[in-house]
């Protein structure tokens, strides 16, 4: 019987509640509903009235392939709007084994209160003293938790960035390899956890209640169909496992959409130095691993283990967006410098996209030279300390722009853009513009039809078809995020005749509740409506659905395309 | 024949233009019209597309008492909305003597370009090398300009805060005593001038064209009526000249509306130490001056000269809001420390209200101890340097709150509140909420009827009547700001039967154009409409007309009043 666990971080009271009004919701649909219904839209994100929700998807705990993502929802310190950021790792798969659908963290103690580690069993919650890990980076702190709780540790935690309430702060989750390498990356969710004085959340390793599909035989059949769909598509079966997401460096560069030097150019001269091919070659030479999964049940395996020059583990979950942000956008050529920054971001608990863009802004402001990886590394190390430069860098692009006097800021709703220039990939541009999340490629990945030829073809340089493309992808993605699926299943689903039906079949047979394709679409659309409603009440207007002015007036080489949608033209992409 | 001077700060081209579509506008009505019509609402405030407009009022250059205020308009770096900030000093009175109604600064050079001093005559503009004053504080830099241009210097300039593009940066104007002590204080206008690489603007001392009223006899009669109105009212003839605006410390404290310790309390235990009475006593003991005017033709004389312990000049234009911000809100008891900070703010070119609130936020965040004036002084000195702490402090309350993790931020539209707690003075609270300027007491000073019994009486603790009060004051104020009047004339006008008619008579007889009381009201209302239109197109919605959440849920002692208007209830205060 799934339950919602509510924890008051000030009084330390807690309650395991029935799901009540939140029945038939999961993942993003659940976090966004709770935030929209329960959090005053105009509260400060770091104030006592904000809440942090951690939820498993509708398929959480099941054996359906790639269904183990965990959703984190809150009012974002970065955007001031609603936020759902999801992550791999073991947390979402574990929650149902404790009969937990969601954990809702409420209220906060005085700022001078000590940090706690929340130890959660299936019947109680303990606020344990966290003095031994406070101030520590995530990897060493996670090692301490491993030593204390054993190899079956399943934890969520914040690093120094979250402790110091930085807007780039992530929540890091234990991955299948005993590392805190999976991130709910965007929007500063870690700062909200920090404001509630929670350093880590540990799920009791001793509790592992049995989880089974209600309609076991139907579920088993659907599961097989599902795995075959994923294994038959070239992107999910070859591209992603072979080179990780970094396979995109050359692809997006070739398309003239790889934002370079703080979004000045669409191609980067040193793309080959930071490509997925180069990464795979480097990993193999150093005896790392080119393929790993980020959560139980993953059949795509797009993660990896990247070793340093000595062959020692350096980082994993080393994504295209990270490599792009530091590599192309901040002009850093050395893949080892970039990998080091990825590790620092995981250790401090910072969003690599926001931080990479921030480094580019710092370079634009003359704080450090363009392309200087070593100087960038030193900047990153300041975050989480009492150095005011770290306060600035740790708060992301807008804070850095304001501090350094840079007016070229590639942000929407104060969140910086990922690795696709919207001028040349307008399908994802419409998503950046209209999603309640701020600039976010994962909210409706129009790169599919604009560049990859997946799910049809829509010209990314022209307006035609891109609002509809973005809308359809946004709805589908919100559903995917609510079921607990990894977004990458979309590649296969978009090109599969029965992909969507199979997802619906999985949910229906797992939960025992009727769940049609229409229900799936409604799940996604309703999540978006909750998010849009919250943002409207938080003060966003349709004008906030514009991209930065410089993209309207400055053509992007080499294709010399500008952003020519106004706010009215993109409203159709909303639910 | 009044003209508009347009200067391109990148190409250094300029043109003296007829006023064309901007006929019959002046001051704020003119700056807001130009910004609304000519600046893309979604541009970055520090980008080339933003403009900075300096305008004299409809009565600029005339001998009408207290009509010499200068308006500065731009898209605000602090709020992201439209901004008009006006100042005393000699600039507005001088412009008509050069046949100038407005100066419009457009475009900007590369950020690495050197700063210039603009030397403006009645027929040409020179970009002069400013190397000798770049990086200098306003007082010493102004002394250098005095040495170069002589005692008839009339200048506008920025200090290190403006040069470094800080959001609190002011533009300082030459006052009648050869000091750069008058500020267009709010909203970061100085950063816009800095972005255009202009350190100072000097109006040619040699040009002094004759300015005369078109209907000379009528004007002369109206002028006499006008002076008598000002001289008959106790506030403008006794309260303000006697103690300066600081007369309000005890008055507002007594009313329980003096925001104390970052807006936690409505009364301050050490109010007597920072009162106008104490200030006057100190000034007299040190042989300063208790009364001075800020511009030619002032008959109110609310300014002063505040000397240090050695009897040497320290500061002037030492306002109630400044004393409150550092004294009550940041809990600093020593009036000399506060005066020193006032001077530092004038020297660096920073808004004392925003900076005082920022110091309180820094104290709330544990950066320096509460009430520590010496530590606060050291913080202020960092602004304009390359110290990242100075970047944070110089960017105001929101930047400081974000950097220091403080969620108690007394701001509306990102501009911090002045010296009147809106929970206890709801008339001014409605103004904070609804004016396009962000929290700004000067946009509609409801303290009049709420506390001072001027212009009637409206209970400041209750909702009733306060929306109407604010609306009427906002329209009147916008008209006052457009004619070039000092806001303080409103005290007398509100209690005078023929005050408004006299103002209209002055404009009609001075300009020779028909100008009725209805025209006066329309002038104000249309200025507000321009401002509201711009802000809406810049992304503001009516939700932005709420006050900070903490004021909705936290009663203010001693009267235990909260802010209980929602955004819909205050819309009636808009034009």
Automatic annotation (TrEMBL), chains A, B:
Decide whether keyword Secreted is in the record.
no
Question: What are the residue boundaries of the Aldehyde ferredoxin oxidoreductase N-terminal domain, all occurrences included?
Answer: 1-207
For this protein, the record's InterPro entries field holds:
Ald_Fedxn_OxRdtase_dom2, Ald_Fedxn_OxRdtase_dom3, Ald_Fedxn_OxRdtase_N, Ald_Fedxn_OxRdtase_N_sf, OxRdtase_Ald_Fedxn_C, Tungsten_al_ferr_oxy-like_C, W-dependent_AOR
A Pfam family the protein falls into:
AFOR_N
Q: Which UniProt keywords apply?
A: 4Fe-4S, Iron, Iron-sulfur, Metal-binding, Oxidoreductase
Q: Write down the required cofactor(s).
A: tungstopterin; [4Fe-4S] cluster
Instruction: State the family named in the UniProt similarity comment for this chain.
Output: Belongs to the AOR/FOR family.
Q: What is this protein called?
A: Aldehyde ferredoxin oxidoreductase
Q: Give the source species.
A: Pseudodesulfovibrio portus
Q: What gene is behind this protein?
A: aor
């Amino acid at each position: 019987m799934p339950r919602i666990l509510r924890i008051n971080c000030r009084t330390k009271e807690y309650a395991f509640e029935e799901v009540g009004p939140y029945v038939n919701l999961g993942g993003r649909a659940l976090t966004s509903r709770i935030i929209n219904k329960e959090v005053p839209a105009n509260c400060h994100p770091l104030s006592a009235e904000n809440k942090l929700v951690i939820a498993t998807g509708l398929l959480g705990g099941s054996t359906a392939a790639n269904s183990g993502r965990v959703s984190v929802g809150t009012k974002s310190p970065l955007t001031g709007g609603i936020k759902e950021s999801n992550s791999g790792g073991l947390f979402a798969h574990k929650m149902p084994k404790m009969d937990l659908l969601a954990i809702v963290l409420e209220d906060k103690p005085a700022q001078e209160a000590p940090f706690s580690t929340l130890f959660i069993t299936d019947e109680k919650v303990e606020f344990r003293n966290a003095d031994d890990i406070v101030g520590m980076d995530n990897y060493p702190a996670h090692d301490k938790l491993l030593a204390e709780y054993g190899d079956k540790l399943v934890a969520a935690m914040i690093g120094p960035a979250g402790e110091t309430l930085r807007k780039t702060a992530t929540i890091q989750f234990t991955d299948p390899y005993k590392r805190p390498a999976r991130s709910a990356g965007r929007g500063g969710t870690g700062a909200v956890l920090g404001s509630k004085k929670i350093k880590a959340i540990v799920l009791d390793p001793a509790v592992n209640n049995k989880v089974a599909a209600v309609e076991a035989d139907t579920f088993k059949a659907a599961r097989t169909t599902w795995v075959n769909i994923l294994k038959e598509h070239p992107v999910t079966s070859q591209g992603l496992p072979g080179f990780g997401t970094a396979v995109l460096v050359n692809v997006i560069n070739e398309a003239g959409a790889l934002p370079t030097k703080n979004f000045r150019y669409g191609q980067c001269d040193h793309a080959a130095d930071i490509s997925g091919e180069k990464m795979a070659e480097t990993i193999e030479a150093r005896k790392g691993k080119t393929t790993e999964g980020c959560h139980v049940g993953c059949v795509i395996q797009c993660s990896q283990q990247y070793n340093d020059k000595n062959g020692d583990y350096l980082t994993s979950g080393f994504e295209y967006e990270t490599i792009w942000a530091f590599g192309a956008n901040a002009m850093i050529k050395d893949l080892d410098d970039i990998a080091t920054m990825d590790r620092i971001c995981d250790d401090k608990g910072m969003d690599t996209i926001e931080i990479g863009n921030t480094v580019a802004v710092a370079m634009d402001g003359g704080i450090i030279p363009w392309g200087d990886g070593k100087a960038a590394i030193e900047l990153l190390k300041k975050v989480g300390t009492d150095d005011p430069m770290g306060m600035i860098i740790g708060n992301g692009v807008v804070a850095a722009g304001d501090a350094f006097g840079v007016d070229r800021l590639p942000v929407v709703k104060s969140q910086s853009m990922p690795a696709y220039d919207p001028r040349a990939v307008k399908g994802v541009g419409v998503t950046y513009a209209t999603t309640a999340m701020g600039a976010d490629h994962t909210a409706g990945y129009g790169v599919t039809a604009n560049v990859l030829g997946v799910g049809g073809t829509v010209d990314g340089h022209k307006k035609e078809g891109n609002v509809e493309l973005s809308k359809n992808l946004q709805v589908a993605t919100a559903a995917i995020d609510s079921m607990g699926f990894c977004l990458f299943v979309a590649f296969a689903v978009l090109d599969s005749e029965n992909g969507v039906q199979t997802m619906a079949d999985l949910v229906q047979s797992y939960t025992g509740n009727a769940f049609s394709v229409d229900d799936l679409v409604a799940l996604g659309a309703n999540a978006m409506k909750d998010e849009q409603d919250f943002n409207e009440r938080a003060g966003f207007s349709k004008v906030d659905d514009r991209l930065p002015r410089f993209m309207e007036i400055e053509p992007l080489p080499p294709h010399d395309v500008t952003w020519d949608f106004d706010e009215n033209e993109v409203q159709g992409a909303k639910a």
